[in-house]
Amino acid sequence: MRSALLLAVVSLTACATIDATQCRNPYDVGFRDGIFGLQRQEDLYQPVCSKNGAQLDTARYVEGWQEGKYEFDRRKAHGGVD
Q1: Which three-class secondary structure state does DSSP give residue 24?
Q2: In which domain, by residue range, is 24 found?
Q3: d(CA 54, CA 21)
Q4: Exposed (0-12), middle (13-18) or buried (19+): which is 10, by Cβ within 10 Å?
Q5: Is 34 a domain residue?
Q6: Long-range pairs, 75-79, Cβ under 8 A, ≥24
Q7: Rounded CA gap, 54 and 82, in Å?
Q8: What is the pLDDT of residues 12-69, one digit of tens each?
Q9: In Å, how far are 27, 29, 50 from 74, measured between CA atoms?
Q10: What values do phi and psi take at 51, rounded to 5?
Q11: Is residue 82 situated within a structural domain?
């Protein structure tokens, strides 16, 4: 339950705080979301980026998310110990 609450707060915070600079760094945003174990958020970010006068490169976002998710899963499988 606590994890679900944390995930919800992080998800809402990430969506609410994306700015034009982050929209220009979609790989980094995707990696951040993936490594925190979040679901892909490009559908939420796209309108926010457009409103801020930037275009989100969704392909780069997905690449970053996949790498971050891979790292999240790897760390989870090892109990968080490298």
Answers
A1: coil
A2: 2-77
A3: 8
A4: middle
A5: yes
A6: 76/37
A7: 37
A8: 544 446 888 999 999 999 999 999 999 999 999 999 999 989 999 999 999 999 999 9
A9: 19, 19, 34
A10: -65, -30
A11: no
Residue type, 26: P
Q: Which residue has the tokens 């990696």?
A: 31
Q: What pTM does this model have?
A: 0.73
Please tell me the distance from the alpha carbon of residue 46 to that of residue 60, in angstroms, as a whole number.
Answer: 13
Q: Which token pair is 61?
A: 């976002």
Q: Comparing C-alpha atoms, which of 79, 27, 19 is closest to residue 58?
A: 27
CA distances to 1, 79, 82 from 14, rounded to whole Å, are 20, 25, 26
* Total domains in the fold of the chain: 1
Q: What's the length of the chain?
A: 82
CA-nearest of 26, 3, 13 to 72 is 3
Q: Locate tokens 């392909």: which residue?
A: 59
